Amino acid sequence: MSDREPFNHDPPYDLAVIVDGAVFRREAPVLLVFRDADGDWQFLSGRATEVADAKVVAFGEIMQMDPTLRETVGTPHEHVANRAAWGDSWRVEPTAAYLDRTDLSLNKNS
Questions:
Q1: Structural domain boundaries enclosing 55
Q2: Residue 110 lies in a domain
């Protein structure tokens, strides 16, 4: 399997992933799942946030918090899975295309 192919199995339970504070505190659902070029994962609410508010948790913990995230396990490197609301279908696209059409400016007044 090349490093650009999606997982066909769950990553290890204890794999470190990044979540934003709103997700960590369970104030908001995960609406964005980024997988970077190195295969690292970020599970984000889509809310404006500070980098200092990010938390590192185990992959297995985030899957337990929201079992619908299992649908994103096949997200390839340099892609993002996104949905408008919890329970909606995931849309997977290249990260560059997503960022080109989306304003992810930090520190917006929400």
A1: 16-101
A2: no
